[in-house]
Amino acid sequence: MNPIVREFFRGLKERNELDAILPELLTTMGFEVISRPMIGTVQYGADVAAIGTDDDDVRKLFLFAIKRGDLGREGWDNGVQALRPSLNQIRDAYLLGVAPEHKNLPVVVVATIGGVLLETAKLSVNGYLQTEGRPGLEFRLWTGDTLTGKIVDGALREEVFSPELRGHLRRAAALVDEPESALDQFMQLVEKVIVDTSQSAPSRIRILYLALWILTVWGREADNLDAPYRASELLVLRAWELLWPEVEQEKGRKREASYTLHEVIQLHLRIWDELYGAKILPRAANLHALSFAVWSHESVDINLALFETLGRVALGGLWHAWLRMPPDTPLGLLEANEDKVTDIAVALLALIENNPALLTPICDDQAIDVCLALLLLTIVPDTRAAAAHWVSQISIASVFSFSRGAGYPIISRDYADLIRHPGTGDDEYVKEMTAGSILYPLLAAFARALGEDEVVTKLGGLQTVQLAHSNFQTWVPNPRSEGGLWRGKNNGSSLGNLSIGADAEALVAALRREVEQDGAYAGLSAIRLDHWPILLLACRAHRFPPPPHIWLPLIDALENPALDHVGRWVRSHRRIGSRRIARAAALISTAREALTHRLPPVDLSSLTPPAVTAAKAPHGAD
């Protein structure tokens, strides 16, 4: 276990990584963290401050100055990011402003590094630690080995992290180049930690948060973040399921649960930024680049991989939209372009434009990814018109595929079925493989809202002629959804027998009736507590179609732009704050600082809104 954790600390970056992990480590050690790293504020050398009981059983104030990696002569005393000047700042300035209630506590200043102390700096560092101390002020050094010991003997100690659990984490890290195997090991770890009720819910999630960080750093070293990304999605959902009752009801634990939850969300978004923001999206404007990156001669492999990427990228953009929205505001149209959200939407369009496979979904449940992409593209002014063209292209491609009897979307996601498709091609096969659809009602509703009337008519004709046997439907939550949605268990209901007709008016009316009459959606914890991206995350990860409750208000707003729909929101610097946006749900206001958006910006400036040429895919309801 020690080598895995040691290499993890060595691979952490200083900003937003090592300084993000340290407060969680201190919390598991029983410390009270009173100051966390913040961007844009003067910290006078102290990245983290905490109150805790030292080895001599004396309560002390601990101040941590953090430096990534190994510490040599350059990192010790030269440059803006050198460690010695930070220690001097703590001694000369920070201690003068200590809060009155902490004034009488002995102070321990800890120089913290993720790696080892190199020989080139050893004499200088040890000399400083010995000579600068005085009564009531002590200087110490914590290296990667020190941090490893404190995690292995603390948060991951054997009483709470058994040899069996350690084995799962070791295997997940070792197999990170094989995402399926690594994810299987990690999720076994997650399930076994979560059922251990001897620890509080936040404590269990903090352990898994540290484990996810370890998996992420190992994935970074292997240049393969697929397993960490998928693990982070599932951990966000399990963390939400475990913590939301405390966030909503328990006043005493509300703050701890809120911080823990949002640290997990921040890590998920960090992995998204590192994988998609930094690696995938900058290449989206290159024709066929991401299609070739799949490294397969099978068109099915390329199609599945691209639609998976489409859904993940779109969901990342929707997370960033949520971070920039005023609290208690549902998803709605942006009235002005919002930097990062627009950048992601434009890059998503470039992805579609340059990878024609995204015009031809091969399985109906790819409608889930199409829906997420349409949500992002339609809320952003710069990509709204392109969304209409994309809907038109997918629809026309689908109608054409039925006319030639091949390449049309089917309800099966079994790889063997997809490879063999269109199989025998007889009527019995067609009826079996197109028995239902969530794709076409979705396309028709958005086509109507975006002014593509001819497309609506074509889809209505497709339903009447080739797919008269098919049950056009969508998924809606029911009272069982709260207990099953976050884990992917069967839940919800099918709203079936939807008819497109010549203008989709009956379709939209049926959806609107369901939305107005259904109370289960509003009762979902993620909606009640203003965390709707978690609902979309559950839909994407567990393959449930996003319910119409979340996208029908957008359609109403698109059809009637003059009306004041509840989903509409205006970007306001006065309400939202600076570009480092703090976002908090009404019932999680105590964790507002935890939601400060500190992720590094992604440079997508080279991308411009594509002319518009692309499409997406389907999925079937339960």
List its traits:
alpha/beta, 5-stranded mixed sheet, Restriction Endonuclease, 622 residues, two-stranded parallel sheet, 3 domains
Cα shape: elongated
β-strand number: 9
For the biggest sheet, the summary is: 5 strands, mixed
Radius of gyration: 26 Å
Number of spatially distinct domains: 3
In the predicted model, the low-confidence regions spanning at least 5 consecutive residues are 564-622
**Amino-to-carboxy terminus distance:** 42 Å
Indicate the structural class.
alpha/beta
- The helix fraction, in percent, is 40-55%
Spatial strand arrangement across the major sheet: 1-2-3-4-5
Mean pLDDT across all amino acids: 86
Question: What's the oligomerization state?
Answer: single chain
Strand residue percentage: 5-15%
SS element count, helices: 27
